[in-house]
Amino acid sequence: MHNAPPVVYPVGRFALGRVALIAVCGLSAVGMLSWQSLTLAAGPKLWGAWCWWGVCALSAAHWASRQALKSGRLGWSGEAWFLQANADSAQQAQPVVVSLGLDTGQGLLLWVRTVDEQGHAQGLLQSAWLQAGAMPSKWHGLRCAVYSRPRTSKLHDGVMP
Prior knowledge:
Elements: E1 7-10, H1 17-39, H2 44-67, E2 73-76, E3 81-84, E4 94-103, E5 107-115, E6 121-131, H3 139-147, H4 153-156
Antiparallel strand pairs: 1-2, 2-3, 3-4, 4-5, 5-6
């Protein structure tokens, strides 16, 4: 049993995700230019480094676009997390494992992974960006659910550790 009450919260699109990716790529390019000017690298070594930078930047862009949950509802039942991919449909909720990536006070970046029948995490690790403004009345309950920890079985049995 967890301490947090049940809550269902809409998953929004992280509008600053692309800006953050572009900023990281730009800063890494500035780092590459600094390295180039400080070491006076030239020829194959320079071209190899820039090609490697390009492969890394394109891979990051491809990975980031596939990992974000675009819409839906993320819910806490009081016992377990679940995800309903499309907020408008009545489809079956899928059990998920949730972990905290970033907490800004007004926004949460959560890492979400689906769970199989045996309760093991499987599939791609996806990110979900939740903002306080999407449903202010449920924000505190959501934060409580994210930060809640399960009680140990000894406490359930009434035995102190």
